[in-house]
Amino acid sequence: MVRRLLIGAVLVAFVVAPATGSGADPAGTVVIEELTAPNSVAVGETITYTLRVRNDGPGAATNVAVMAFAPPGTTAISADPAASCDLQSETQSFACTIATLPPPARNPGQTVALSFVIGTDANTPSTVTFRVQVKNGTNTVSANVATNVVHPADVSLTKVGTPNPAVVGSSLTYTLTARNAGPGTAANVRVTDQLPGTVTPTSVTASPGSCSGT
Q1: Are strands 139-150 and 40-42 parallel, antiparallel or unpaired?
Q2: Separation between Cα atoms, residue 112 and residue 89, nearest integer Å
Q3: Alpha helix (H) ranges present in 93-196?
Q4: CA 160: distance to chain centroid?
Q5: Cβ atoms of 198 and 214 closer than 8 Å
Q6: pTM summary value
Q7: Which one-letter DSSP state was computed for residue 210?
Q8: How far apart are CA 162 and CA 175, in angstroms?
Q9: pLDDT tens digits, residue range 112-138?
Q10: Going by DSSP bridges, is the β-strand pair 127-136/139-150 parallel, antiparallel, or unpaired?
């Protein structure tokens, strides 16, 4: 912009440049305040993740892009607010946009929350990790959180006595077999067998594991 001033009989011309640098509106700095999830869920249940982001300034953050990735073996179900997020079924992920995050000078302590729901099933591993990535301009931050998925065990026990019928005064062997139909691991399984009062225990073995008897 050129401005001209007439001072006395002298014409003075000078150029005025537009404001730049410290005079321009600075960009914001987006930070992930927290990403939370339950420590554990039972297989077949859903997992809800909550993401909170804030703007540390100095300026406003606009068109903040959020990507959230469902862990392998899980299914992306929904996001809230739904109007701000798209579920991308081909990649089992969510693409969200936060239109504006005001700077802290205008809204101290303000955060924006997004929540994501994923499903689990028999193919879900025992530990899943949910990842998020938040991008604003050249500023990119990420976070992840792990959740244990508990697969129940299905333990059964059978008992067989041989020979059958038994002969008085001869040896009688009881065989107990414990099985786990899964899908989860059965740990620290304890088997107790009460013998009839008319027999006397002589020995006991286990494979694998250990036994004691009286």
Answers
A1: parallel
A2: 24
A3: none
A4: 46
A5: no
A6: 0.70
A7: -
A8: 8
A9: 999 999 999 999 999 999 999 999 988
A10: antiparallel
Could you report the per-residue pLDDT of 9-60, keeping only the tens digit for each?
444 444 444 434 444 457 889 999 999 999 999 999 999 999 999 999 899 9
What is the amino acid identity at position 73? G
CB-based contact 183:174 (threshold 8 Å): no
For residue 81, whether the previous peptide bond is cis, meaning omega lies within 30 degrees of 0, is yes
Tell me which amino acid residue 67 is: M
Question: Pairing between strand 173-180 and 30-36?
Answer: unpaired
* Of 56, 55, 73, the residue nearest 64 (C-alpha): 55
Q: How far apart (Å, rounded) are the C-alpha atoms in residues 40 and 149?
A: 6
Q: How far apart are CA 125 and CA 74, in angstroms?
A: 9
Residue type, 150: V
